[in-house]
């Protein structure tokens, strides 16, 4: 059945995976072993986390992503449905495993993430065209580190009044395409990677990134808050001082909240202030989403054949 058009507040384009998390006293040195806490599993991935934050705040969220046909893929689908995220464009790829993120969390709350990517679940140009043909959404958030071809297609189509890009662009993505973005949101580390400089000032980084083409830029800086620049001005927003348990997903919570507020015509500085507080709430507990079920680790069942 062909899905009918349905208005969404924010549509997220990117990846969904399973987070495999352990808390460790310190990261292992070369050739040594560190003992961690029991491994837990929870649906994750940047776009998934962002979509759930939007839904938690009362927004109509949609996720465009591919997952495997294994039990992890079904776990992700079920969790999104329970979180009220629309899954009509969440596709199970036959005979394919779902990607997993291996996350080590140290006592200071820092998370070290390795994505075990399942290449067959990467979005394609066909996926983008099929999903956006009748897509009715106020804003769209795309992971710029996806393969360049589908991102290029999406940016040229501009299927929403507000187009937001996140993460370091894929190496094959033409730099001129950043001019199609109404907003670029990156953390300070990502900003320095894009700019190929070690600037220590997030506001200077935001200003330099805007010169690459985006209409507005937000650079998050963890405990130092966030810096922004847009046509009406620039500035910084402080972050509240809170105890840090786990930074996993803080940036995703920030972006999910920010995107929704922008669809409600909230001024950018005010939206950043709210998003900064939402992110601060996230780092005070373990895992990116406390609303999603966390279980002891069980290997996924093999993909369907």
Overview features:
disordered N terminus; 29% helix; 14 strands; alpha/beta; UDP-N-acetylmuramoyl-L-alanine:D-glutamate ligase; 9-stranded mixed beta sheet; 305 residues
Characterise this structure:
The relative contact order is 0.17. The chain has one domain (7-16, 45-96, 122-289): UDP-N-acetylmuramoyl-L-alanine:D-glutamate ligase, CATH 3.40.1190. It is globular, with a radius of gyration of 18 Å. The chain has a 9-stranded mixed sheet, with helices on both faces. Strands 7-6-2-3-14 form a 5-stranded mixed sheet. It has helices spanning 46-56, 71-82, 125-132, 148-157, 188-195, 202-210, 250-263, 268-282; strands spanning 7-13, 17-23, 40-44, 61-68, 90-93, 100-105, 111-116, 136-143, 162-166, 183-187, 217-220, 226-230, 233-237, 295-296. The model is unreliable at 1-5 (pLDDT under 50). The chain is 29% helix and 25% strand. By secondary structure, it is of the alpha/beta class. It is built from 8 helices and 14 strands. Helix 3 (125-132) packs parallel to helix 4 (148-157) and helix 7 (250-263) packs antiparallel against helix 8 (268-282).
How many domains, as an integer?
1
* CATH top level class name: Alpha Beta
Overall mean pLDDT stands at 92
Low-pLDDT runs: 1-5
- The named CATH superfamily: Ribokinase
Structural class computed from helices and strand pairing: alpha/beta
Q: Biggest β-sheet: count, sense, barrel? A: 9 strands, mixed
**Can you name the CATH architecture?**
3-Layer(aba) Sandwich
Rg for CA atoms: 18 Å
What order do the SSEs take from the amino end to the carboxyl end, as H and E? EEEHEHEEEHEHEEHHEEEHHE
Give the overall silhouette. globular
């Amino acid at each position: 059945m062909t899905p009918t058009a349905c208005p969404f507040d924010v549509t997220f384009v990117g990846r969904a995976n399973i987070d495999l998390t352990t808390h460790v006293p310190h990261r292992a040195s070369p050739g040594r072993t560190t003992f961690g806490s029991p491994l837990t599993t929870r649906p994750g991935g940047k776009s998934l986390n962002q979509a759930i934050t939007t839904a938690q705040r009362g927004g109509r969220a949609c996720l465009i992503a591919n997952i495997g046909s294994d039990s992890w893929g079904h776990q992700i689908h079920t969790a999104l449905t329970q979180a009220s995220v629309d899954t009509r464009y969440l596709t199970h790829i036959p005979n394919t495993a779902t990607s997993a993120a291996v996350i080590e969390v140290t006592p200071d709350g820092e998370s070290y993430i390795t994505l075990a990517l399942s290449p067959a679940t990467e979005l394609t140009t066909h996926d983008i065209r099929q999903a956006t043909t009748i897509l009715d959404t106020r804003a769209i958030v795309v992971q710029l580190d996806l393969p360049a071809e589908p991102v290029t297609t999406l940016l040229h189509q501009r299927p929403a009044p507000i187009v937001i890009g996140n993460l370091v662009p894929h190496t094959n993505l033409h730099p001129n395409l950043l001019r199609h973005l109404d907003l670029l949101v990156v953390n300070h580390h990502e900003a320095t990677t894009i700019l190929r400089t070690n600037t220590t000032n997030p506001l200077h980084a935001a200003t330099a990134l805007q010169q690459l083409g985006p209409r507005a830029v937000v650079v998050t800086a963890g405990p130092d808050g966030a810096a922004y620049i847009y046509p009406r001005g620039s500035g910084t927003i402080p972050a509240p001082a809170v105890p840090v348990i786990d930074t996993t997903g803080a940036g995703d919570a920030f972006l999910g909240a920010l995107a929704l507020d922008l669809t409600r015509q909230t001024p950018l500085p005010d939206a950043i202030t709210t998003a900064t507080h939402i992110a601060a709430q996230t780092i005070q507990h373990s895992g990116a989403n406390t609303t999603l079920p966390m279980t002891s680790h069980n290997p996924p069942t093999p993909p369907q054949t």
